[in-house]
Amino acid sequence: AAARAVSDRINVIELIEPGKYQALRVGNDAAVAFPRLFVDADVEISASSVDHLVEALTAHDVSAVGPRRVIPREGVHWAVRSYYDVWESLPSVSSGLFGRGVIGFSEVGHERFVGLPEMMGDDLVISESFDSHERLVVVEAEVTIHPPRTLTDLHRRRIRASTGNAQADAAGLRRADGRTTVGDLAGVVRRNPRLAPRIPVFLAVVVAGRVAARRAVSAGDFETWERDESSRQ
Q: Mean pLDDT across the stretch 45-51?
């Protein structure tokens, strides 16, 4: 109802069964134009930023684009802030299109997207399907992504991420440079020594998420969607 109230040019399609993957596919089938953008429901992006993404896809020889992330820290647990301070500094996070809530495709990039299998970590798999010269983070475009406010909610997100990563690894859809290594964390500290005290917090959150994800991975459960509600308040 909120979307319909904005403009009669907006085509709202309602599905009986919930699910992000199905929603992406149904919406994609209904779209007719390129470039084409996919936007998560829980992020904020302006019309001018959308314009910048479209311009990048038409002006540059790239197939997929994403905006620059802005992750507000106000009202967020200190451990969650520490986690994101380290996470945002990782090379794969800085250059990848995952975790941005918005991905745009040219017609060529779209053909690759529709050929990908259904995956829990869909944005990671999409990002990994493009070489570095085929994708672009458009710094003029900005998306606001609200992080979990509590450590419990961050843990839920990490369980989902770890489960999705395991599924992508098993399918051979994740590159080696997409994994965080000790060398990556050492590089973060070299570039920004003030982050050194936050590395143990980051590691604790990641390890706890991996341990908690083992049951789902062992059971082959890649459909249960662990999500936090605090970021949606």
A: 97
* Sequence-ordered alpha helix ranges (H) in the chain: 2-6, 20-30, 47-59, 78-87, 91-95, 107-114, 122-128, 151-170, 182-191, 199-219
Q: Please, which pLDDT band fits residue 225 given cuts at 50, 70 and 90?
A: low
Whose structure tokens read 């399907």?
Answer: 129
Measure the CA–CA gap between 184 and 40, rounded to whole angstroms. 28
pLDDT(160) > 70:
yes
Listed in sequence order, the residues at least 6 apart from 214 whose beta carbon sits closer than 8 Å to its beta carbon are none
- 135-145 and 43-45 beta bridge pairing: antiparallel
Res. 233 pLDDT band, cuts 50 70 90 = low
Pick from 169, 163, 200, 225: nearest CA to 85: 200
Token pair for residue 201? Answer: 């917090």
Q: What is the CA radius of gyration of the chain?
A: 18
DSSP 8-state symbol, 87 = H
More confident of the two residues 227 and 31: 31
